[in-house]
Amino acid sequence: MILVKPFRGLRPRPELASVVASEPYDVVSREEALEEAKGNSLSFFHINKPEVGLSPEVNLYSEAVYEKGRDNLCRFVDERTLVRDQEERFYVYKQVMKGHSQVGIVVTASLDAYEKNLIKKHEFTRPDKENDRVAHMDALNAQVGPVFLTYRAREEINVLVEKILDEVPENDFVASNNVRHIFWVVKGAEEISCLEGALNSLDTLYVADGHHRSAAAARVRQLRMKSNPHHNGNESYNYFLSVLFPHDQMQILDYNRVVMDLNGMSARGFLGELAVNFDVTGIGESSKPRSANEFHLYLDRSWYRLQANGGLIEKINFDDQVASLDVSILQDWILAPLLGIEDQRTDSRIDFVGGIRGISELEKRVDSGECAAAFALFPTRIDDLLRVADADKVMPPKSTWFEPKLKSGLVTHILD
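and the corresponding structure tokens:
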């Protein structure tokens, strides 16, 4: 079965790429996006987060938001800020962040393969967020944010990509967060053919980041199929915009938690309950966990190291791909039994802080009185993600924070 294919990308004119490109819609708040887009009528936030151009009173999920996004996309095309390639292409996208580099291939991925689980998932989606992306995608008739896919690295593909990296890139700029973004257009017919053959020889692809976007694309496809009496399976809505990275180039940061209260316990009482299954040690200053099965707790302006003790280690089923994850250990042995947080997807007493924001963000949230405690976790490994997906299981929510994030706006997929 075909996993991926090239496509006619809609891209900014080369001299405008750094001005157009924005952060993904889901990693910044409305206020942060508004600040970033201020004074920049070409920011892609006007398309992927169009509420920045509307009154703060307008509901984020109102029809007016999606209509604004569609109007802005049309404006960008009419003004030739964005220009569509005449031929189907692949694209190569390299990112460099603090010495870490990763190189991905921009493709459209098959929704047939996705629905047959040849493109594997590892997270559940939230209905409200999925509905938002369905409405946005359907209104704009475009996929404007790529899904982050990974595959088990293969030397054949590495060699093909390395040859493209020797060519002159279309875009090369450093964003405000000091991440460098380099973008190549693969134009040679032989290069495209070789890449297509190599990628479609893979057995499996994995959704690393973008479960809501891929699920929304599948739903939009169903809508289009029902409304198209001449549907033949070759239409562009049968595919979704993606960037494929080899697994050994992926960088996963910690994804930490803050809780709003201690479920009626005092700080001392909570520490006493934790001591049943964890060795609790005070540590003088903030630091990140050094290994799996270790958690750092910020409570009452002090840091503590929580190390799973021998009794708990015996209780954990390390043969279970999900139960053995640190995010599951935190849920199963602290959040649910002690704090009464049964479902992290829906409970308003817990929030999530990406590791890119640093340990200081955890201290800030607790010291302000907004939260009662914070937990810093050791990052989930990419091998664990693949194991869970291969077993057709699902990770707890917010298990992985991939960094650097893919810029939106460098290429868009139009749903013809």
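(Above: one complete record from the training split.) The longest strand covers residues 100-110.
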